[in-house]
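Sample intake sheet
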Amino acid sequence: MNDEKHYEFGANWAKYIDKFYSQDRLAAAQKALLDFIGLPTLKGKRLLDIGSGSGLHSLSAFNAKADTVTSFDYDPDSVSTTHRLRDMVGSPDNWTVMQGDVLNADFMRSLGTWDIVYSWGVLHHTGEMWKAIENAQACTAVGGLFLIALYSSDVATPSTQYWLDMKRRYNRAGALERRILEGWYIFRHSLDMRPWRIPTLVRHVLAKRRDRGMDYMTDVRDWLGGWPMEYAADQDVVNFLEGKFNFKLEKIRTGEACSEFLFRKMDRHNGTTDLKTFKLQAKA
């Protein structure tokens, strides 16, 4: 893992579980996972969760009847929080939680291959995004699914450099300045400096909870603090995985900060997908 100072992702997700975990949020996260994969359950599937964070999506996979779930994270607080959720369901033998580094090729090889490899909003925070993607994809079995979400340079406004600079500032800030920056973010970017848009923001907050079981302020802190950080153009991600590693893009959802990709690993080269002709599924 890159030696540069990292944002305290695990502490943020621990607070999320402490304050906001509920069966409704779990159900929303589980539905989002299954809907994007396109399966009614994960019965008969083995899932690897790279960068488990709060552990919510690992628990979603377990509840969706996955045969085996393995979760790992670089951050010890995330590992601890994921353990807490596993303990809540009786510490099942078919759910393993561990600390690990996606940039450690030996560790990744030790995990073997999986029917579903899942990494939502993680690989761009490693400090070596393309190496992280390469190491993660190697855990996908032939015929298996690789589901990742990455910050897209295609929709970054006002610019990628603007946000990289803001994240550096947030991580250097003390507690008071962080609260000020969070308030500024809400006013400047969520409300577009128009207070009368508060009802729209409230609908967005409720939709985030309904659609993925997430909490708005947890995501704000994760967004502002997320460092290290890299962006990727959607087409570059597709070209990288289809061109080098025999994946085929099955679905993409765009329109927010993260683009979500669902790839299937093929047993032979299939060419690359041109996103200009691929029917994008824009996120509402």
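Comment: The two ends are 34 Å apart (CA to CA). The mean pLDDT is 90.
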